[in-house]
Amino acid sequence: MAPGVPTLLLLWLLWFPDFPARAAGCPAACRCYSVTVECGALRLRVVPPGIPPGTQTLFLQDNSIARLEPGVLAPLAALRRLYVHNNSLRALEPGAFRAQSRLLELALTGNRLRGLRVGAFAGLAQLRALYLAGNQLVQLLDFTFLHLPRLQELHLQENSIELLEDQALAGLSSLALLDLSRNQLGTISREALQPLASLQVLRLTENPWRCDCALHWLGAWIKEGGQRLLSSRDKKIMCAEPPRLALQSLLDVSGSSLICIPPSVHVEPLEVTANLGDDLRVACQASGYPQPLVTWRKVAQAREGQPRAQVQPGGGAPRPGGPGASDTGSGMLFLTNITLAHAGKYECEASNAGGAARVPFQLLVNLSRQQQLQLAPPPPPHAGPASHEPLQEAGSMAFRALGLATQTAIAAAIALLALTALLLATMICRRRRKRKKAPGPPGEGALFVNDYSDGPCTFAQLEELRDERGHEMFVIDRSKPLFAEGPTEAADGAATGPGQGLPLQPPAAYEIHC
User: Fold this and answer.
1) What spans are recorded as compositionally biased (Gly residues) (predicted)?
2) Which CATH architecture has domain 25-207?
3) Residues of the chain with pLDDT under 70
4) Residue 484's pLDDT is what?
5) Residue 41: CA atoms inside 13 Å, Cβ hemisphere, count?
6) pLDDT (0 to 100) of residue 488
7) Boundaries of CATH 2.60.40.10 in the chain?
8) What fold characterizes domain 262-300+325-369?
9) Taking the CB of residue 33, how many other CB atoms lie within 10 A of it?
10) φ and ψ at 191, to 5 degrees?
11) Where in the chain is the domain with CATH 3.80.10.10?
12) Which one of 54, 149, 290, 502 has the largest count of C-beta atoms within 10 Å of its C-beta?
């Protein structure tokens, strides 16, 4: 190789450092440097295609990406650092990072995340730092970070977090830094911080802390040794309420001043009778300090030990394991289009850090006479052997479990069957009457005998069945012979022989046997 060639090659690489990466492919408008791809501030709405599979650091900051499409990051299994801060992400799909088993750092700061689903960080077993500051998070649910066993830094500052559930931080045994400053936390439980066995830095400042009995543990914990986790600034945990303790530091408030008032509950009336199809609202008023959380539950009428069913606002079916109709301070039981299934016992519960109180409520469903007839079971088609099985009444649990649409369909089917049976009986009756009223055979001297075993048996009924020609009708008793057996005297005095009775035969007749 001629002298000076290495120098020229070095200069070439200095001027075009991304040449090897570009030779392997690089997304349009992005800049690629070896194993680093920089696509920041390009007004991107989606992750650009064509990112080399061997990329280890990917910059996507300052764009307008609103969603990480499922599988879009799957080819990038070698990623170590991913920066998606200052975008428009509203949610993270469960499993979005499942292929990033080597990822060490994930920045999602400055997006529009309002909640984090369980499983959103599944697959990130090696993640060390997670940045979620500056989003719109309101609450952290149980087991949100369960899949991050090696996480060391969790940045949650500058959100709107009001609730941190007891198991929200479960699984973070390696966490060293937790930043919850500048949120809307009023309280935090001891259980929420228990999983953090490796915690070294805790930031809780600039939250509207409610200094009551529920926060007594935090003041005692800081004084006993927790202050080693707090900087001089972080120790200033200021009370926002109650008013008498506002603007005081939690560390300066005596434990006897951190009090709670157990809740009291009032429901009026305690029993309501509603009509089928009505809407219902029942208010449950609760008082106490801190303001109680009010929850309506439908008391299950099943076996003891089973969980109580909870009622959703608007009368919807409850989700398994989901919350009931709850509110802070006052709770409203709201049922729409009431059916028999809504009838039963309910319970309003109010709870706060000082305790819990419950009040029962009874709902009765009134059926009109017409609705009772519609919901009544149809009569049996024919008499059969008596059944010893219990009948299902309209108010039974089996029928109550049906929805209003199903109940209406059953009632309509019953009514249709009854109407069909009535029409069939009418047609049979008319056909029989036509047969009975049919004119006799031609020839007035003939005796025409019809044998009806189910006809009328009185002369008054016979009068109603005279045919159009006015033929005489009479009742013949089968116990008596139709013609006289002995000789009879005719009108002219001559005797007639046996079997020649009824010398004056009617022109036509109908014989009705009784």
Assistant:
1) 313-324
2) Alpha-Beta Horseshoe (3.80)
3) 1-24, 301-330, 368-406, 433-514
4) 46
5) 0
6) 42
7) 262-300+325-369
8) Immunoglobulin-like (2.60.40)
9) 15
10) -60, -30
11) 25-207
12) 290
